[in-house]
Amino acid sequence: MMWQNYHLDNAISKAGEDTKLWQTEKGIVEIEKNTLAIPVIMNDQVKGYIFDGHGKLLLDTIVETKEGAVGKPVEKEIHAPFVMLGNVEMTGRNLKPASSEDLAEASYADRLGFMAKAEELLDRFFKNGRIHSRRCSYGDEGILFAFQNQPDNLDILLAKDTKIVYKAMDTVFISDKNRAVLKSCEVVCVSSGKSVVVKRAKGCSMLCC
Amino acid sequence: MHIELKTTNVELWRLKIELSEDIKEEMKKLKEEMAGLKEQLGEMLEKERERRHGIHIDVGNHVHDYVEDVMEGVAEGIHGELEKCIFIGPRGVKITRGEQSFREEKETQVNFPKAAEAMSALGQEHRLRILKELMSGGKYINELQEKLSEITTSTLSSHLKVLEEVGLVVQEKVRGRYLITMPGRVAYKMAGRVTRFIEGGNRE
Question: What is the ipTM, given to two decimal places?
Answer without folding.
Answer: 0.84
